Amino acid sequence: MKSELGDFLKNRRARLSPEELGLKAYGTRRRVSGLRREELAMLAGVSVTHYTRLEQGRAAGASDSVLDALARALRLTEDETVHLKRLARPPASARPASPRPEHATRSARRLLDAMTEVPALVLDRRNDILAWNRLGHALLAGHLDPAAPGGPAARPNLTRMLFLDEHFRELYPDWSEEATLAVASLRLAAGRHPDDRGLAELVGGLVIRSEEFAARWARHPVRTCTSGVKHFHHPVVGPMELHFENLLIPGDLGQRIIAYSAEPGSPSESALRLLSLSAPGFEPVREPDASPGRGRSEAGAAGAPPTRLPS
After folding, report:
1. Which residues, 6 or more positions from 97, have their beta carbon under 8 angstroms from its beta carbon?
2. What is the arithmetic mean of pLDDT over 29-40?
3. Rounded to whole angstroms, how far apart are CA atoms 252 and 2?
4. Which among 54, 88, 163, 167 could disulfide-bond with 210, CB atoms 3.0 to 4.6 Å apart, if both were Cys?
5. Cross-strand pairs, 128
6. Which pLDDT value is given to residue 51?
7. 30 with 57: CB under 8 angstroms?
């Protein structure tokens, strides 16, 4: 987490130039791109020594006023400011618990079964697909086995599919924008759960296997997106514009339901209806219930050191 904080500050400092902030740049040669440490410290009203400690990951005792001042000087968004504070003051690491496979709650699965006219999925905080309804499977992964979410070892993951699954990738005409948003959301999850072994393994695997992911991860994008519009080009029914909502499931597992809907009377609604008619039926997988104390996978085996996220 120390390197995460330093890398994030350096990245955001490099994005700003003295001229756009009203500072006079002396000389024509600068050893660093963007702002120097001294310039940022002056803009934020903190000492250079104090700021240097922060970049070195020595953020113990950093106050809200200092972090807010840096956020203003760096022109951070609200999401980026929250992320900065999480990196500067990470939660105390608890003793890692034995990992257990995570499953959708019984009530969440019942809700998915009842949502017969909209695509819907249950996701965990890593974007593993824990369950989907018939339309959710048909919209996003008709090329995969409907029972795939039931097996933790080979469970589909939306972010991994976006970078490594050509069929899934082709669903998004605005793939580059979708990919950047996915990485930005994953960065937020990494800041919230720095000792999550499964999350670290997901990021590490993608950094190794996808240059496109690695390049985006290195830019430290940070953004949350709980609702909005996504554009699809489905191989069966063609283009669709669907609204989506993320609905957080109460509890401490970090699970959520994401559901998609079309504007009434729109061509997308007709396409979604056609998809429903053409999609094969399947029997939803019945898994153990993810009740409190079960299905947690914040970290690795008991006694093992926390797995760090790639910076």
Report:
1. 296, 298, 299, 302
2. 77
3. 26
4. 163
5. 157
6. 86
7. no
Q: What is the pLDDT of residues 62-121, one digit of tens each?
A: 888 888 888 888 899 888 888 888 888 876 655 444 456 788 888 889 999 899 999 999
Residue 248, Cβ neighbours under 10 Å: how many?
10
Longest dimension (CA), the chain: 70
pTM for the whole structure: 0.78
Nearest to 4 by CA among 54, 40, 68: 54
Residue 124 pLDDT class (50, 70, 90 cuts): very high
159 pLDDT above the threshold of 50: yes
Q: Which residues contact 189 (CB under 8 A, 6 or more apart)?
A: 125, 126, 196, 199
CA distance 133 to 113: 6
Distance between CA 182 and CA 99 in Å, rounded?
Answer: 25
Counting other chains too, the contacts that 55-63 makes at CB distance below 8 Å and 24 or more residues apart are 55/5, 55/6, 55/9, 55/10, 56/2, 56/6, 57/1, 57/2, 57/3, 57/5, 57/6, 58/2, 59/5, 59/87, 59/88, 59/89, 62/88, 62/89
- The confidence score (pLDDT) of residue 65 equals 87
Tokens encoding 70: 């840096």
In this predicted structure, the answer to whether residue 158 has a pLDDT above a threshold of 90 is: yes
Average pLDDT of span 198-203: 91
Q: What are the CB-based long-range contacts (under 8 Å, 24+) for 106-109? A: 106/289, 108/249, 108/255, 108/257, 109/284, 109/286, 109/287
How many Å apart are CA 188 and CA 186, to the nearest integer? 5
Q: How far is CA 283 from the centre of its chain?
A: 30
**What residues contact residue 69 under an 8 Å CB cut-off, 6+ apart?**
44, 45, 46
What CA–CA distance (Å, rounded) separates 114 from 118? 10
For residue 152, CA distances in Å to 33, 103, 247 come to 44, 8, 22
Phi and psi at residue 118, to the nearest 5°: -130, 145
Average pLDDT over residues 137-147: 94
- For tokens 């097996």, name the residue: 151
